[in-house]
Each structure stands twice: as C-alpha cells, then as structure tokens.
C-alpha cells in the first residue's frame, strides 16, 4: 500500500514523546510519526501525480487534540491519535480522490487527518488521554512525501508550492 | 584495630575493619552481610555516597572467605572506585594481612603489545623452547660430571667403560636436543614470558603480597625485571583472599570461566561483590550481544578464496549471501537523504518486524541459493575451526610472524547464532551503518542485541556462593532483583547518616519541561529565573544537570546573560575533567551539563566544590531502538516495560546526580529538582508524575516550593547555617 504522506515536524514528535509514560499502556507505540494525505492501491503514475499536485500551495496544519478510533478498518483497536486541523490538507485530499479514486474499505468520505500515537489498548486508557491539547502545535506543510510501502521510505520529496 | 564497645562482644569480622570504629549504619550493614554470606544468600545494599558501603561488604566477606576457604572478588566499572578499593585493601592488610591481587586486562599490561591470540601462541612456543633448553642444560651438566669422572678414572678400569658408555649416550641425547633447539631458532618466542619460565616465582610473590600492588606497580616491576607481569599476576591468583577487578571479568561469560580457573576456585567458592551495581544491567547487556561487520565478512571471503578445502565453496556461498543481504538491508533501510548524514559513529537502523522475521533475514532468504543456510553456515563454522587451528600451529612453528585470526570462524559463528536467534524475543536484531573515516565508504554491521541482562547474570549469581550488590541507587529492590535474576536476596538500605538540617531538597514547581515545550517562552523564563535565583542565593558553586547537552547549552546562554556568577558549559566531545577542576577551584560558579554526560556519577564534588545541585526536567533518555527493545522485553517479562526500562533508570540517574554534593557530616548544601513532575501535586498528573518512583524516605525529604518562593527558602536555609558570612545577599 503506497501513499502520499505529510512529514511531521520535530515538535509533534516531541509532543508524542512526552506522552510516552501514558502510552505505555497500549500494545504498540508508534515511532515513525507521519500523516497520510492519500492512500493508493499501487504507486500512481508519476506524471499524473505531478499534474494533480501542480499549483498546490504550502499550507498550515495544527495538532489540536488527542482522540481515538474504536473501529479502524485494519489492525488493533483503539487507535489513539493526534487530531490535525488543516483545511489545506483536506482540499488536497479531495483533489487526489477526484483524480485517483478511493481505496475500497480504507478510505471513505470521512477523511480525518491524524498522526497515530499508539494502538491496541483499552478504550478506557484512550478515553483518559483524549481531549484538547493545552499547547496546540502549528506548522507549515512545505513538502509532500510519496511513500513506498515496500521500502518503507519516501520515493522523493515534493516541495510546496508545487 | 576496632575497639570493643563495653558489654558487647565484637564479631570476628571486625579484625578486618581497618579504622577505629564503624558508623552505626555500617555495623548494621556488616551484620546483615555476614549473616547472608553464612546462609549463602545474595545481598542488595543501598547506601548514600560516603556511608562506607565498600567496607561494609568487604570486611564481613573477607572474614567469611577466611573461615570457609573462599575468595572474595570485588568489581566495579568506575575507574575512580578501583582506586578506592586499593586504598581500602591496603588499609586492611596493614591491620590483618590479606593476600590481594588487583587484576586488569592483558592488553593494558603487555610489554610487547600483542593481542591475546598472538600472545597465546607465543606462550605455547616459548614453553616448548624453554622445556628443551632446560633439558639441554641438564644433559650438559650430566655430561660434564661424567667427563670429570672419566678423567679421574684414568681410562683403564672396568668402571671406566660404563662411564664412557654413559657419556656417549648422554652426548648423543644432547646432540639431538641441540639440533632441535637449532631448528626452532626461527620460532617466535616472547622474551618476557621466557624470563618468567627461567625463574622461580618466589621473589615476585614475596614482593606482590608484601602490600596491595596496583597493575601499574606490577607492570613497572616486570618491566624492570624483564618479565611478563600479567602472566606472573595470573599465576599468583590461586587461592588468594581478595581480587579487585573490572566488571567484565565476571560478566563476560567466556572470561569468567578462565578467571575462575586462574583463581583455582569452583564458582561456589567465590563471593562476588559488585560496586556501583545499578550499572550491572547495562554492562551485562553489552557482554551478551554479538556483532558482525561487512569487513569481517569480506576478510572471511578473501580467506576462503585461498583455501583448497572442499568446504570452502559452501562456506563462501552462505557468507556471500549474508554479505549481500546485509548491504541490501541497510541500503533499503536508510531513508531519503539519510546516507549523506552517516558519520563515523555507528548509526542504528530498524530491521525488526512485529509480524515476520527481521528485514535482514528476509533479505538473506531472498539472496540465498544453495543447500540450506543453516547447513552451510555450520559447514563454514567447522572449516573456520580447522583453519584457526592451522593458523595457531603455523605461528607456533615460526612459519608466520603474527598469529593470524580466522575471519571465517568469526563470520560463520555469527551467522549460525543469527539463524538460531530467529523467533527468540530476547535477542533483538539490529543493523547499523557507519562511514569509514579513511575511505569515506559507508558499511554495515549486523547485531544481536540482548535486552534482558538476567540471561547473562542469573547464571553467575546462581553459581557463586553469594553476591553482594551495592550502590547509592538500587531501589526499588524488587525491580533490581527481577532484572538481574537474583533469588530472594537480603536487602538493606541506609539513608544519608549526616545531620538532616545541613541539607535541603526542593521540588520546584516550574512547568514540566516536556520535550514539546522546550521552545515555550513561558517554560524557558520560569526555568531561567529559578536558576538565576539559585545561583545568586547559593553561597558557592552550583551544579546544574539537564536532560541533554543541547538544553544545558540553552540555559547556559540564558543564565549567563542574567547573572554575575561565573558560568561553565560542559560540551560533548570535550574532556570534562579540566572544566570540573576549574569549577571546583572557583567559589561562585554554575556548571551546566547533561545528566547523561560524564559528571553525573562517579565524580564527587566535596565540601565547597559545590554547595548546590539542580536537576532540571525529568531527564528521560533518548528513546532509541535499543531502549525500545529493552522496554518490549521487560513488558513481556514483567508486564510494565516503561517503568522498568525507562522510568526507574531515569530516576536512579537523577538520584545519582543529587548525590554529587553532601559527601560528609560537615558538608552542607541544597538539592533542587526543577520540574513540577517532582512535586506532590504531580499525583494529579497521572503517569507523568515521577515523585512516586523515589524511595519513600527520599520522597519525604522533598519540599515543594513555588519558583518565586525558592529564593526565600534558600536564603533562610543558608542563613541558618551561617554560610553567607558578612555579606548576605538580599532574597
């Protein structure tokens, strides 16, 4: 499964690190924090992707709260995550869906930009951590990373504005 | 000699106590250790620095060893501490004579700088030559005697015929031995070891046990006499009362077996004493791992290319596949642009997977074609052993001038171990890369990291008669017990025995220095103001520890701008000792350093070297994959990986730092924990508070204080002690 990812700044990673004492209650704690903008069944054609991305401006994103999914389409639940607010990211997601379609069973109309922190604990643990952040982290997204799932790494880096 | 209190019978062990009178704590600790040793039980002993832990363990252990014919082995991994042991042992031997050996690794004691394999081969060859020389000398002496007898006889008696016959036989034999010696003339021998064999060891023994000698003393003695001090020392260890050495002599499973042989003791006749024992877990982990670099693999392949043995083909096949898989794995694991950042330090890459074998094994399975990885690796291992033996013989016979090391043996042994470790959750697979400083090439290394030290230490603790582990920070005892694999040890802890009014420990309610809030101006201002106040109101030096060097540098910059005090910054890669000395020599300084640097433990700041110590933030270590592996393993073993693997070691580190000041009864000073996570209020912070991880007695000493009130607290504390002299600051 390939995807277009949005890199997460060090401040968000540090925010995740600060929650480590509480995240210890979950089965798996994520180390590589990143945010998915759009998934693909297989790597999209490079030119088609570049065409779609053309004109995309740099945009703002803000991690504002902690929330959790109880019913993820795959893997263990609950999924504890940072809620990211970003109208720019939502617009970009919609544009990519229009051009490349959705991945059945994984993507629907309800795209929730998020950074996964941990998964596989009890709902009670997740509820205890959920809530708005005292200090939201705001950053500017200035590049996109087309992600190669097999290699577990980015294919290249696309600077924004594209 | 210890004085006897009236009406109380002094225990036998006090004959080894070298000073007037033990502290009351010390006496209690010695009783506990003596009782435990009699019962063959292990002891965990926690005591603040300067409370005489070493003697508390050593004195009853020596008494036990003397009574039961055992040997006491006392070890540390802190160099400073080694010197303290020597000083204690010297004091003891002046009261009650003991035979003590201070042991150090061969590499630092060799007079001709060869490695251990070469040394072993040289010694074998030297022994053979020395034996023949002795034979030759004996034969020459007999020949001379016979010749003299022949001369007296005049050559005409019956007896003369017998003597002549005997002379002939002896000179025939002599000729053979001399021929053999000529033949072996080109062989490699070690002249220092040869000298050892020529003399009886008595002079050395007399000198050695006349006092407690350091390895440096032994080296100098041997250099003067043209001997090998290391071998003399090794041979002198049999049945001694006390050995002082480094951790690795006991923790490295291979060295440990040899070490017990040199002692001439079965493990059950050894009493092991570990100092700074909070470090045993980490040190044991280092000894338990195994690594293999691309360079070793390449050397092994080169070696195999020149080998005629039919096993060389399958051996090369499997090692080639492993090498290719290793390269492929790190190339894939390096993220975009990461390769350019690799420098000459090893850089860990993640290869483990939750749901399947690690990436290196998967790559190996793809690369490999042949009759079976395990089968061929074992063939390679057998061939490696045969080659290694041949190298040993060639060197002993003088065919080679150095003892060649068999790279095939090393590589094959690792591959076999790697394949065996598959699915063993306690052996965590890692791949690392570094850049060769010479060629600029990036190359890789595979590693099996052992996360649970118990797997190495439990066997040791099981087999020795008993062990005493001491440190200023061992609690919680049940965690230490679990992690190291001790079974129901006797536990004792002793707080600071000094007058409590001469110290004050504050938990300052500054906002938590969470990593994500490091840039937050509100947090930075609060921490800076606290440190500026502390510097101004501390009549003397203040030592400030931070979670990292970067944070130390940040607050060094900020505080320097706002204080009259002299500020010092400890930086990574720069030796801290000079800085420490300059700081200690001054009287109004603030030293900024990382808690994970070299000044956090083992270095003391006595008396007016420092009047205050501050730990800023909760200094969790950088959570790398090794810490993660330890955490995951502890979660499996004990159910709570975070607490065992991260929180407890972090609080121990903090407590070690607090222990840097107040080292004697007349010492006084303040200790500051600057972060709200240390305060009573932190109970409301759930898992984020760390106050509960401190032992109860230390927790009770923590006084919560608001940042703006700290200066009044400091002022009152130091005023009451009359520490300001004539010119007190205004709070």
Number of domains of chain B: 3
Major sheet summary line of chain A: 5 strands, antiparallel
Strand content of chain B: 5-15%
Mean of residue pLDDT values of chain B: 89
How many helical elements of chain A? 5
Report the CATH superfamily of chain A.
Answer: Cyclic phosphodiesterase
Model description:
The complex is a heterodimer of chains A (162) and B (731). The mean pLDDT of chain A is 87. In chain A, the strands form two sheets. In chain A, strands 1, 3, 8, 9 and 10 form a five-stranded antiparallel sheet that branches. Chain A has a five-stranded antiparallel sheet with strand order 2-6-5-4-7. Chain A is α+β, with helices and mostly antiparallel strands. Chain A has a single domain, classed as Cyclic Phosphodiesterase, Chain: A, CATH 3.90.1140.10. Chain A is globular and about 45 Å long. Chain A contains five helices and ten strands; from the N terminus they run E-H-H-E-E-H-E-E-H-E-H-E-E-E-E. Chain A has helices at 10-18, 20-23, 46-53, 87-100, 123-129; strands at residues 2-6, 28-29, 35-40, 59-69, 79-85, 114-119, 131-141, 143-148, 153-154, 158-159. In chain A, strand 8 (143-148) and strand 9 (153-154) form a beta hairpin. The longest helix of chain A has 14 residues, at 87-100. The radius of gyration of chain B is 31 Å and the shape is globular. Chain B has three domains: 12-103 and 237-286 and 465-492, P-loop containing nucleotide triphosphate hydrolases (Rossmann fold), CATH 3.40.50; 290-450, Fumarase C, Chain B, domain 1 (Orthogonal Bundle), CATH 1.10.275.40; 500-720, 3-Layer(aba) Sandwich (Rossmann fold). Chain B is of the alpha/beta class and 731 residues long. The relative contact order of chain B is 0.10. In chain B, strand 8 and strand 9 (442-450) form a beta hairpin. The chains are: A alpha+beta (162), B alpha/beta (731). The interface between A and B is medium-sized, with 24 and 28 residues.
């Amino acid at each position: 499964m390939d995807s277009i990812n949005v890199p997460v700044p060090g401040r968000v990673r540090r925010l995740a690190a600060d929650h480590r004492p509480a995240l210890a209650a979950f089965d798996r704690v994520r180390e590589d924090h990143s945010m998915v903008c759009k998934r693909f069944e297989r790597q999209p054609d490079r030119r088609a992707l570049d065409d779609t991305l053309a004109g995309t401006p740099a945009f703002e994103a803000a991690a504002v709260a902690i929330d959790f999914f109880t019913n993820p389409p795959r893997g263990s639940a609950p999924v504890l995550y940072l809620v990211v607010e970003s109208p720019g990211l939502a617009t970009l997601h919609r544009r990519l869906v229009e051009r490349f379609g959705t991945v059945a069973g994984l993507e629907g109309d309800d795209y929730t930009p998020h950074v996964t922190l941990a998964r596989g604990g009890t709902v009670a643990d997740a509820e205890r951590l959920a809530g708005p952040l005292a200090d939201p982290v705001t950053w500017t997204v200035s590049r996109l990373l087309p992600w190669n799932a097999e290699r577990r790494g980015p294919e290249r880096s696309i600077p924004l504005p594209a | 000699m210890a004085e006897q209190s009236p009406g109380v019978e002094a225990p036998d062990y006090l004959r080894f106590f070298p000073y007037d009178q033990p502290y009351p704590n010390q006496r209690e600790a010695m009783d506990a250790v003596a009782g435990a040793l009699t019962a063959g039980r292990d002891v965990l002993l926690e005591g603040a620095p300067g409370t005489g832990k070493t003697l508390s363990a050593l004195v009853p252990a020596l008494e036990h060893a003397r009574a039961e014919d055992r040997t006491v082995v006392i070890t540390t991994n802190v160099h400073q501490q080694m010197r303290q042991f020597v000083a204690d042992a010297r004091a003891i031997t002046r009261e009650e004579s003991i035979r003590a050996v201070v042991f150090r690794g061969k590499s630092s004691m060799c007079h001709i700088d060869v490695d251990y394999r070469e040394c072993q081969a040289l010694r074998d060859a030297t022994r053979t030559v020395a034996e023949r020389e002795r034979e030759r000398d004996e034969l020459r002496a007999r020949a001379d005697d016979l010749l003299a007898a022949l001369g007296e006889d005049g050559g005409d008696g019956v007896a003369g015929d017998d003597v002549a016959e005997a002379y002939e036989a002896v000179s025939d034999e002599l000729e053979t031995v001399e021929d053999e010696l000529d033949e072996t003339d080109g062989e490699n021998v070690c002249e220092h070891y040869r000298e050892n064999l020529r003399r009886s060891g008595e002079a050395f023994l007399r000198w050695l046990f006349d006092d407690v000698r350091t390895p440096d003393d032994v080296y100098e003695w041997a250099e003067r006499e043209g001997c090998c001090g290391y071998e003399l020392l090794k041979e002198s260890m049999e049945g001694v009362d006390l050995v002082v050495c480094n951790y690795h002599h006991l923790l490295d499973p291979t060295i440990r077996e040899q070490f017990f042989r040199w002692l001439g003791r079965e493990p059950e006749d050894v009493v092991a004493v570990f100092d700074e024992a909070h470090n045993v877990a980490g040190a044991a982990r280092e000894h338990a791992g195994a690594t293999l670099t691309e360079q070793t693999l390449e050397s092994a392949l080169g070696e195999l290319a020149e080998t005629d043995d039919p096993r060389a083909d399958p051996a090369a096949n499997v090692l080639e596949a492993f090498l290719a898989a290793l390269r492929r794995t790190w190339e894939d694991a390096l993220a975009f642009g990461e390769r350019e950042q690799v420098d000459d330090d090893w850089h860990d890459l993640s290869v483990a997977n939750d749901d399947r074998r690690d990436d290196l094994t998967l790559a190996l399975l793809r690369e490999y074609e042949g009759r079976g990885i395990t089968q061929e690796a074992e063939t390679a291992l057998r061939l490696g052993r045969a080659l290694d033996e041949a190298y040993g013989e060639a060197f002993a016979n003088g065919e080679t001038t150095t003892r060649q090391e068999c790279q095939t043996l090393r590589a094959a042994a690792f591959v076999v171990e790697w394949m065996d470790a598959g699915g063993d959750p306690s052996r965590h697979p890692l791949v690392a890369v570094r850049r060769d400083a010479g060629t600029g090439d990036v190359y890789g290394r595979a590693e099996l990291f052992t996360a649970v030290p118990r797997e190495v230490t439990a066997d040791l603790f099981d087999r020795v008669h008993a062990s005493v582990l001491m440190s200023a920070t061992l609690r919680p005892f049940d965690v230490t017990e679990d992690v190291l694999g001790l079974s129901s040890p006797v536990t004792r802890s002793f707080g600071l025995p000094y007058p409590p009014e001469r110290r004050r420990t504050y938990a300052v309610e500054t906002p938590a220095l969470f990593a994500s809030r490091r840039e937050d101006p509100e947090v930075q201002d609060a921490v800076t103001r606290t440190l500026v106040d502390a510097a101004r109101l501390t009549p003397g030096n203040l030592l400030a520890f931070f979670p990292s060097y970067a944070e130390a540098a940040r607050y060094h910059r900020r505080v320097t701008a706002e204080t009259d005090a002299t500020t010092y910054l400890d930086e990574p890669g720069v030796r801290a000792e000079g800085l420490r000395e300059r700081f200690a020599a001054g009287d109004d300084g603030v030293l900024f350093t990382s808690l994970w640097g070299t000044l956090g433990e083992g270095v003391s700041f006595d008396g007016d070297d420092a009047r205050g110590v501050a730990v800023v933030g909760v200094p969790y270590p950088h959570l790398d994959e090794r810490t993660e592996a330890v955490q995951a393993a502890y979660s499996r073993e004990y159910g709570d990986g975070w607490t065992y693997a991260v929180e407890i070691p972090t609080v121990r580190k903090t407590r070690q730092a607090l222990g840097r000041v107040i080292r004697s009864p007349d010492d006084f000073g303040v200790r500051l924990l600057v972060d709200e996570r240390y305060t009573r209020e932190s109970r409301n912070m759930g898992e984020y508070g760390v106050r509960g991880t401190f032992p109860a007695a230390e927790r009770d000493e923590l006084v919560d204080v608001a940042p703006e009130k700290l200066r009044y607290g400091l002022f009152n504390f130091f005023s009451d002690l009359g520490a300001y002299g004539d010119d007190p600051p205004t709070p």
